[in-house]
Amino acid sequence: MTKKRILAANSQYVYILYKLAIHITSFFLPVIALFSAKVKLFVKGRKSVFIELKKHITANDSTIWIHAASLGEYEQGLPIVEKLKTEYPTFKIVVSFFSPSGYEVIKQSKTSDLVTYLPLDTSYNVKRFIKLLRPKIAIFIKYEIWPNMLKELQNNGIPILLISAIFKNDQIYFKWYGGFMRKALEKFSHFFIQDPESEKLLYSIGLNNTTITGDTRFDRVSEILQQNNTLEFMDIFTKNNPCFVMGSTWPEDDELLVAYINASSHNMKYVIAPHNIVPKEIARLQKQLKKRTVLLSEISENSLGDTEVVVVDTIGLLTKIYSYADIAYVGGAFATGGLHNTLEPAVFGIPVIIGPNYTGFKEAEELVKLRGIFSVRDSVEFTNLADKFFLDSDFRTETGSINTSYINNNKGASIQVMNHIRTLL
Q1: Does residue 158 lie within any of the structural domains?
Q2: Adjacency order of strands within the sheet including 352-354
């Protein structure tokens, strides 16, 4: 048997295993949902997918479909979603999510006409999904490679774009055993990728339909500066005092942040916005803080007078809160969950501090080299750096300006993507 036939047989074998794995997952998810609130949302939300499509999409509708894994990818694609909504008002814009953490936040958004879950990638599900949705174009953000869905889209002659994509050499597509997933990649009509390295990797497997555009997140965060970021409680709370905002923190982050706040003698206001806002975690954090602290949900007209720390126990306000920061800390790089969005605070021209585990987060890697973001390994390094930012205004300003320049120099990806989309609609 030739090498080509061996690889083809291997690919078919992997496809059979993939289909089996999807069906096994589908069977066990309801059981797992009994013990996991997140999986429960995952299962419950998918029960109404086809009902919602029938309800909101008619035979006379023209639709554009955008898919995001979760909230971060949605934010990445939002500049495209907003431009599509403006330029193609007669089309219905449908956004789908794989993760509940994206769907639950965006489900009431008016930016799109319908927000739904992506059904599990079985042949039956994808055929039914595409038949009901009938998109004129499908746009996937960053990754989310679902073989059966991509195959069905291609079979129906629907253009498929992957935007803000980034590829690494250790991914399955570039391994000898990755033939099945390479076939899935071949279904994309065009790749809009972040860097030359990704283009080289795609070229190595025979995919030349690429354009290097960078990351649409830079366009998204730049738009944040144009919105109204005023928050009355932050105006009252800061009173023109320096403000240190600590966003998307995990318990591993909180350990050094709380120690710093409790020991600090600086005349500074602090905001902590934990990633996980379940009551038990919020109560734990509040108990650890020794300075005068109030929960955002409990703020009243008279509660902010002598408050030194605000703990954010609601969602949706962190971006605006960053606009009040003189220094920002972004969580996740001490934890296993992964570093959170560093561009949101960086766009306001302020220094950003993160933990040590940021490998694989392109903008963080680049800004650490440029010294707009600083990575710390422990509480001693964090304390020394935070104190320096507080005491040295020139250092603080120079660091923040590096972040501003970096974002300005990387804008424009969504313009190139839209120029291509216009040729397809």
Answers
A1: yes
A2: 293-295, 309-311, 269-274, 243-249, 327-330, 352-354, 373-375
Q: How many other CB atoms are there within 10 angstroms of residue 370's CB atom?
A: 13
Q: Is residue 302 part of a domain?
A: yes
Q: Which of 256, 248, 250, 234 is nearest to 307 (CA)?
A: 234
179 contacts 383 by C-beta, under 8 angstroms: no
The total of structural domains in the chain comes to 2
Question: Which residue range forms the structural domain that includes residue 348?
Answer: 229-409
Mean pLDDT score of the chain:
91
Share of the chain above pLDDT 90, in %: 73
List pLDDT tens digits, range 86-101. Answer: 999 999 999 999 988 7
Same structural domain for residues 210 and 247? Answer: no
At 343, which CATH number? 3.40.50.2000
Q: Tokens 């660091």 correspond to what residue?
A: 399
**Under 8 Å between Cβ of 290 and 257:** no
Q: What are phi and psi of 234, to 5 degrees?
A: -75, -35
% of the chain surpassing 70 pLDDT: 96
Domain-embedded: residue 223? no
CATH of the domain at 47: 3.40.50.11720
Output the CA angle 138-139-142, nearest 5 degrees: 145
Encode pLDDT of 272-306 as tens digits: 999 888 888 899 999 999 999 999 998 877 778 78
